[in-house]
Amino acid sequence: MELGGAYEGPAGLVHGGMLAAVFDQALGRACENAKVPGMTGTLSIRYRQGTKLGKVHVEAWLDRIEGVKAFAKAEVSTSDGVCAEAEGVFIMPKWARGLLTEKLLGTIGD
């Protein structure tokens, strides 16, 4: 993705708050893609180096599932290497828990 001047914090670098929003979206999408949607419970970020404005690569994946909690991890990198890492816990809302159970049980015996 491209992060230009509108996302600048320190001169020439992406604002850390913008990276937090990018991580939240990417981690949540990783959970959704794994069929375990949830709401952000926690989001922890380690900023390893400044993220230059311009092209950034975002990679997110599901790490594990524990009951109604999905744990995901992500990295943001540029041509300079990994700039930041994140971990998030996403909690399936109560209204969705019954829907997922129905879907899973509906496939038994098919």
UniProtKB/TrEMBL annotation:
EC supergroup of this enzyme: hydrolase
Domain called Thioesterase: residue spans: 12-82
Catalytic activity: hexadecanoyl-CoA + H2O = hexadecanoate + CoA + H(+); tetradecanoyl-CoA + H2O = tetradecanoate + CoA + H(+); decanoyl-CoA + H2O = decanoate + CoA + H(+); (5Z,8Z,11Z,14Z)-eicosatetraenoyl-CoA + H2O = (5Z,8Z,11Z,14Z)-eicosatetraenoate + CoA + H(+)
Keyword Iron: no
InterPro entries assigned: HotDog_dom_sf, THEM4/THEM5_acyl-CoA_thioest, Thioestr_dom
Pfam families registered for this protein in UniProt: 4HBT
Highest taxon listed in the record's lineage: Bacteria
Record-given protein name: Acyl-coenzyme A thioesterase THEM4
